[in-house]
Amino acid sequence: MHSDMTQRIKELLDRGFSAASALGEEIQHRVSSGDFEWATVFGAELARRAAQEGADSSEHAFLLDRLQTALATTAGQQSLRALMCLPSSLQAGESAQTRAERRLAQLVALGHRPADIVPVVYGEQLGTAASDEFKACLLQELVLEGVAVPEYPLLRSFGEALVTEEHPLAPLPLHLLPTERALLRPTHAPHDWTWALPPATVAKHSDRPELHASPDMRRRSVAVDPADTTVPEVAEAMSAAVRHWLEESNGTVAAQEFWSASPVSPNDFAAVFERLPLTAWSTGETRPRLHPATSDRVLQVLLTAAVRSPAYGNGMFGAYGRLAAWRSLGGLVGAAPDAPICHTAMLVEQAHWFIADPSSDWFHQVAWDLAVAALRPGGQEIAVLTATDTD
């Protein structure tokens, strides 16, 4: 029976990829009808052929992607077990494997119930052996989905093991922090609700009225003389959420710190902001529209940038996107590099936040623009992160 199925799958693949759409429909039909044995055998044959062809296996990779997506979006332990039996990637190399596992973790968290995920992935049922990296990413994807992780002993113990092993994701809490409140699905949200924000425009990123620098603001802040105190280490931390814009695409980032002997009042920030020597707005150039922002809205902006793909390349997906967003927040509020995220979160809540309209010629104004500013606790320090990308 099994050999007959393998033979039929070989014949199907031998027809050539001019019928790729038909193969995609066959995959969807088989998975939706619950033929998970077929899906497992089909995946094994794809892996076998890709290994024979070496680097020239893009068409097989496309079909594996279709198969993974179909299984990941079909709820239930049987489909999840079949998915765990597939290779995560047909491409050689650690980076391809890692990227594929992060993508799969996001798909599984979106498409399957925790009650099914926990026994299959973390209980390591016979025949399903997920890598620790996949499980670490999936754990954080579940957190982002609002799953009460501590209620599942297997998830909790795996999270504790990550701390012991000093895994890169270990610093992330196993629950959403108060600053992440905007990530929680509203009670009556539609099926397609998402916390991710649309392409960057200040109208979409800010939900508060524009600030205007009045003569009184300028008079009160006349003694404020901010000096640029940017150091590479802090600039790198501030830029973490948009690092992939630089590394994989055509992105440009400017992360700057300023210090003033005279504290800045949040009420006068607009007047001080227009005088800052900002890379994204040349001296004498019309300053951007500035809006106050809540800490959770700024986190949404940074997390959206981290999770989504730049003009070229890939996004970080949820787990490492969350880590990058918190690293950026830590840089923006001046937290120590090794500070616990709960301490960073406290500083984030104490800071005053602003979002600027990416209106200068420095920004490409396509779909990847970002401009946020933080007035740190105490009022003497200001941090500004601007980023842009284009195709």
Give the gist of this structure.
By secondary structure, the protein is an alpha+beta fold. It is built from 17 helices and 6 strands.
Q: Estimate the helix proportion, in percent.
A: 40-55%
Percent of residues in β-strands: 5-15%
Main β-sheet, spatial strand arrangement: 1-2-6-5-4-3
The general outline is elongated
Mean pLDDT: 87
Topology as a string of helices (H) and strands (E)? HHHHHHHHHHHEHHEHEHHHEEE
Please, how many helices? Answer: 17
Unreliably modeled segments = none
Q: Could you give a short account of the major beta sheet?
A: 6 strands, antiparallel
Whole-angstrom Rg: 24 Å
Sheet/helix structural class: alpha+beta
According to DSSP, the number of beta strands is: 6
Cα end-to-end separation: 50 Å
Word description of this protein:
The longest helix is centred in the N-terminal third of the chain and has 18 residues, at 36-53. This protein is 48% helix and 9% strand. Strand 5 and strand 6 form a beta hairpin. The protein is built from 17 helices and six strands. It is of the alpha+beta class. Helix 16 (317-333) packs across helix 17 (341-350).
